[in-house]
Amino acid sequence: MLNTDSPLLPEGTFTRKQAETIVAAYQNVAIEDDQGTHFRLVIRDSEGQLIWRAWNFEDNAGEWFNRYLLSHGIPKNTFTRN
Fold first, then answer.
1. Global pTM?
2. In what order do the strands lie in the sheet with 29-32?
3. Distance of CA 26 to the CA centre of its chain
């Protein structure tokens, strides 16, 4: 696993709660294509172009999502959500 103080997803599949934690922690990350039980977590650049996306049920989804999140320097949110 990559070494970071920022929240990351587990290496495999991930839950909605885990995805919401990532959305709250980083800019340009969102839940899209929400089907209720399954959804995609996406990373976009500052211009809205897609960098990476993963369905929550995919094998190794979290591992690859984390890699793209960190390798592209996605900024953290500077505020705290309650």
1. 0.85
2. 29-32, 40-44, 50-55
3. 8
